[in-house]
Design brief:
7 helices, mainly alpha, two-stranded antiparallel ribbon, single chain, about 100 residues
Length: about 100
Amino acid sequence: MEYKEFERNISFYKQLGINIPFYYELIDDNAILTPNEISAIFNRNVDRVRQWFNPGLKHGALPSFDPTRHKCTGLDLKEWLFKKDIKKFMKNKKFKELV
């Protein structure tokens, strides 16, 4: 499943009682986010968020359109988080049946 398909069906998944993290609806796709802003959303240390841009992560680096400043769009952030979250979603029986 790709993120766009998931995004189209978020309200449907919620109706089925599947727990969807808050950030998929909170973060604007067109927002330009810095590590400071991302750390505030997730209540994480800004240094930890900067590590998310590191290409050595298992599910890949958070893409940055400004490699010296580590900035990303809201859509890039949500797509990156989805790669990590899909494993959790697949543990849900209802979600797994729909995929």
